[in-house]
Design goal:
single chain, mainly alpha, 2 domains, 85% helix, DUF6460, transmembrane helix, transmembrane, membrane
């Protein structure tokens, strides 16, 4: 196994294909919601501005975002690990 393959976790071509499919799906969802990459960046910026300006209420919102994201990311991670489990 080459160092590049070991670093990427798979062959470069398969990693590229996976990233293309994932990018397409994320782009499709973002388009459905009418989001642009700048909207996401502005949203992240606004969270940190709120943290600075609003104190603990903003921290509560920030943790809420983490929990909201974790509700999707953790099960997806577990499903991906189960799907990729090799005996």
């Amino acid at each position: 196994m080459s160092a590049l393959t070991r670093f990427l976790g798979d062959t470069p071509l398969r990693v590229l294909l996976k990233l293309l499919v994932l990018s397409f799906l994320v782009g499709l969802v973002m388009n459905a919601f009418g989001w642009s990459p700048m909207d996401v960046l502005y949203g992240i910026r606004n969270v940190f501005i709120d943290l600075w300006n609003l104190g603990f209420r903003a921290i509560d919102r920030f943790l809420g975002y983490i929990l909201l994201g974790a509700a999707i990311v953790i099960p997806a991670f577990i499903l991906l690990r189960i799907a990729n489990y090799r005996k």
